Structure formats: structure tokens, C-alpha cells
Amino acid sequence: MTAARDAVFARLAEHRNATEGVSLRELFAADPKRFETFSAAQDDLLYDFSKTHLTAETLNLLVELAKAADVEGQRDAMFSGEKINTTENRAVLHTALRAPEGSRILVDGEDVMPLVLAERAKAAAFAEAVRSGELRGATGETFTDIVNIGIGGSDLGPAMAAIALSPYAQDGLTGHFVSNVDGAHISDTLKGLDPARTLILVASKTFTTLETMSNAKAARAWLVEKLGEDAVAKHFAAISTNAEAVAAFGMDTERMFQFWDWVGGRYSLWSVIGLSFEILIGAKNFQAFLDGAHEIDAHFRLTPLKENIPVLMGLVGVWHRNICGWPSHAVLPYDQRLARFAAYLQQLDMESNGKSVTREGAPVTTKTGPVVWGEPGTNGQHAFYQLLHQGTDVVPADILMAAVPHESVGDQHAMLLANALAQGEAFMRGRTTAEAAEVLRKAGKSEAEIAALSPHKTFPGSRPTAAIAYRTLDPRTLGRLIALYEHKVFVQGVIWGINSFDQWGVELGKELASRLIPVVKGEAPTDGLDGSTKGLVEHLAALRAD
Ligand code: F6P
User: Fold this and answer.
1) CATH of domain 505-545
2) What is the CATH number of domain 108-287?
3) Which stretch of DSSP H or E encloses residue 234?
4) Is the CB of 157 under 6 A from ligand 1?
5) Which atom belonging to ligand 1 lies closest to the Cα atom of 240?
6) Does residue 212 have its Cβ closer than 6 Å to ligand 1?
């Protein structure tokens, strides 16, 4: 399989050599149907990759690559509950979390759907009871503030989705998300909250994560100080796969919401990890969010590769990363409520595909995951787009946009869309030095000024972007967008031959941090530390002693 894949990679490289000089402008000039040919839709959601350098031949080769790497076989293995996370000997079934009633999905011969549906119903009932005021705190007050304590996959998803779907949140309910072990985070969050009206969800797949456990202890102490020990049961709930650790932490397992080891942390938003934002938006909207993701699951399973949006997204990314050699990928939502979307995708993509060995443990022979980053437009335009337009590196980008906003503030939505479209056009077209000179000439500049300024006003162009356009950012569409990126990451992981579902790379830092905690506290010697770490520990200790 690797040999077949590498043979297609070699043909793609030759193809790139032969076509590298052709600009995006030229591709559009040569083919008036380029937009129709290089775009795909799922209902209202459109993926337009015509502003990349792909030609019909490139796409054919990339689809051959997907076939040679057995993307379809691996996809079917994932959906059917095979243990494709080989280093942890686990199935990968976040797709079961959004599967509808009546589905049957087996892990080790057991149908997991009854468990999934029971936990989904339990979370929905809890969310509705909090929203209606049926469920109250120790003093009989209704809850107004929901604090989710978690980190990574137990934080980024609900925190991102709470912002994205804020128009659907119930008035009078506010979500707060605490992740960092920096005490500033929990302190700033709890400051000003009324404990009698605060519900605290401790979300951790393992229930051993240092940051979450420390913040949970701090929140518990804050609550107990104000309301007494007996209030804990009414103000806390746990979300975990680890009932033993929940009990050991002193939390009531009756108030525990469960998920399973076949749900990766960064894929857990669809499980009870989504409880905090389900409380905010309600069970009906949460179900629409799950249904949206399930639509994309069906699309991914059933649509031919050339029209399959997550497959296309993955292939375009492989083209940019492996064949063009570009190391980073920007996500630029022209949709302010997707403010944390790039941060969410960073974990999804970089924790999944930031790997250097194959599934078999051999060194990879291709580049793997790119650096993923981004900020909403138009803000980014006034910050980092300078580099995207005129810097020495090419940074491919996704530009996301909604046709219909939730608010109409004058004609600002038209302005927003115009900016999104203009950026895609500017990246694609660029501006030649001759064109820059012409603009300056029309502005009445002298020939000397034109000669001096035109190099600075030249844009190389031919910088690829893909657009993702949808009707509106509602629960269904957020579910669809996340699922698209999940499957894109999957497709790329399969092509690179890596396990996208483990995350051993986070372990070393955790181990070293636990060794350093007593050293930083001054309870253990600095012996054996490298010179720099020792020097820093001593410098910090001296400052703290002042
Ligand atoms: O350190 C990385 C990680 O394990 C992520 O994969 C995970 O999402 C996060 O930490 C939080 O883990 P947990 O939910 O077990 O607290």
C-alpha cells in the first residue's frame, strides 16, 4: 500500500514540476467553468476550491492517492467500530455519538447505541431541568451561571460552541469555561459569581488531568466556603469515562455523565462533554447540532470521492503540504462567532496529525500535519494579512462565510461578505508591478515616485484559498462544519499512514512538569537539571523570595 501511495506521490511531484509556473489567474482565464468544476455542495453548504492550483489532472491524481492509501477502507473500518487506534487498542466512534436512534454499532460484539442513547437522554433531561428551574441549588435558587472546568478536548469544544451558538442560548444563563492551571483563570471566572446560582461541571475524560483537578478543587473550596459542604452535591456534576476516579475525587457518581474510551478527547464534543453548552442552547438545538454532524457522516460515507467535501478538503491540504511544501494552514472565518474555531481546529488537527511515525512505528517518509491557526476576518486583515499577501511564505487558507447573519446591523453583513470575497480575490489575483505602476500613474504620481513605490505595491498573487459558504451559523451548520474538519483530518492521517487518534506527544511535558513541581516549590533540589532549567528555577525562586 505504501509503495502504491508513494508512486502516486511521485507522479504528483512531477505534475507539480510541470505546472508550477501556471498562475491562478491563468487557470481562471483558461477555464470559465472553473468554479463549477472545482466546488462541491452538501445542501446549502458549498466548498469552493477553485482558487487553488488544482487542475482536472491534479484532482485525478489526488483521488488516486486516496484510493492507493485506502481512505475508503479505513473510513469504513472507523465507522464500523474496528480498533483503528492501534496504539491504545481502541475503536474510534465519535460518529456513534451523533448516530440516530435505530442505528446499531458494535464494539467487541456489543451494540454501543443503547448506552449512547441513554446517556444522551440523561444529559438532555438534566439540561432541560436546569433551564426550566426544576433543578436548583442548595438554597433553592435557580442556576444562572454554568462553569465548565476542563482542558483540551474537555474545554475547547464546548467553549467554542457556546460562542458560536450564543444566539440560541437561554436568556439569564451564562456559560463560563475554565481550563488553565494558572490560578488567574479560575479566580477571574469565579469573581463576581453567586455560588448559590452557580452550577459547576467538572469535565475530564480521564479525571486525572492536573489542570482540571486543581481547578475543580479550587472551585469546590470556593463553594464550600460560601455554602458549606452539603451544597457540593447540588452544585457539582462530573463528566468522565472514569467512574472510579470521580468517586475517589469525592464526587457523587449519581451526578456523573458518562462517555467511553472509544471517544477521543478532541472528538468528545458530541458526547456529554457538550453538556455545558447543551444547558445553554437546550436539548432540541443540541440534537440539531448532532444531526448536522450525522448528515456529514452520511455524506462522507456515501459520496463519490470527487464530490466528497471532507475528502476534497483533505486532498487539497495534502497537495499544499506535501506537494507544494507549505507548512501552515490558516482558518479565517468571516463569522465573528467562530472566534474560537481555529483554536478548536488546532487541537483537532495538530493533536491528531502531528506525528512522525507511521501506524507500524516506522519513521514517516512524508511531511504530516501543518500548523493550523487563524482569527476571524475582518480583524485578521488589520493584523497578519500583510504577511499572507506579501510575505515570503505561501499560507493556504480556508475562508468561511454565512449568507444570512443573526443580526442585521445596517449593511454591515454585506460589508463583511464583501471583505471575505475581496480577500479571496486579492490572494488569487495579486497585483503585478505594471498594474501597481498604472494605479500610481492614475493617482498622479511622478515617474520617479512610481519607480520607487511600485515594488512595494506589488502583490505576487496566486496564493490559494478555499471558501466554505453556508446559509447561517445555526446548530446544524456548526455540527456540519466540525464534522467536515474531523473527516478532513482523518483523510489526511490515512494518506500519511499515521494513527490520528493517539497523542503520546503530550506525555513528556506532563511527566517533566510533575517532576518539577516540588523543585519549583523549593521542596526538592535542582540537582540533575540542565543548566538552563536550573538557572531559570533559581532566578524565579530569587524573584519569588523578594
Ligand atoms: O494532554 C492532552 C489531552 O490528553 C487531550 O487529548 C485531552 O483532550 C486533554 O488532555 C484533556 O484530557 P481529559 O479530558 O482526560 O482531562
Assistant:
1) 1.10.1390.10
2) 3.40.50.10490
3) helix 232-235
4) no
5) 14
6) yes
